[in-house]
Amino acid sequence: NAGVTQTPKFQVLKTGQSMTLQCAQDMNHEYMSWYRQDPGMGLRLIHYSVGAGITDQGEVPNGYNVSRSTTEDFPLRLLSAAPSQTSVYFCASSRTGINIQYFGAGTRLSVL
Amino acid sequence: DAKTTQPTSMDCAEGRAANLPCNHSTISGNEYVYWYRQIHSQGPQYIIHGLKNNETNEMASLIITEDRKSSTLILPHATLRDTAVYYCIVRVNTNAGKSTFGDGTTLTVKP
Lengths: 112, 111
What we know:
The complex is a heterodimer of chains A (112) and B (111).
Chain A: E1 4-7, E2 10-13, E3 19-25, E4 31-37, E5 43-51, E6 54-57, E7 64-66, E8 76-78, E9 87-94, E10 102-103, E11 107-111
Parallel strand pairs in A: 2-11
Antiparallel strand pairs in A: 1-3, 3-8, 4-5, 4-9, 5-6, 7-8, 9-10, 9-11
Chain B: E1 9-13, E2 18-23, E3 31-38, E4 45-50, E5 55-56, E6 61-64, E7 70-75, E8 84-92, E9 105-110
Parallel strand pairs in B: 1-9
Antiparallel strand pairs in B: 2-7, 3-4, 3-8, 5-6, 6-7, 8-9
């Protein structure tokens, strides 16, 4: 039982490049979320999903796309990377009716 | 989610109890108090939650005031490994995926 797995752990991009951050969970959780955490700051919600095929925006959705084709996977796409997107990205999952989130280890992204 | 207020930072001596306060004066009747912590560079970790009764588990105790407008997370015997940022979140017990994390309290446990 791996929990929530994020790949890659580290990534360096050039401005304008696109990429996808992967998130997978093996707990059959309905809810999944993406957060970003800038240095010395708390977590800010980017996008979340309440189930396969259903996604919604969080506090800071601009510049990011998500889709949820399966229960297990919730990839985050950066369309055209900008230096302002340099951050640590965390994925989380939780079960319906239980507000306990399980987090991945994070992806550290630098945009030059 | 109801707004929460936590001190920016706190210190605690190793082996002593760490008491982390959280103010949530606008909490609604169906909102729970959740605590998470984030050890440096790691993903946040769930600690404990409660509605109105005090709760205890193997990690910590949660004391919620009778009017539910504030709560205290207690780490009974703090160790150096408890140094972390602690987040207090108040929300209904559904759709955890939409949780809002504030800036939390940085707890430093000192030898």
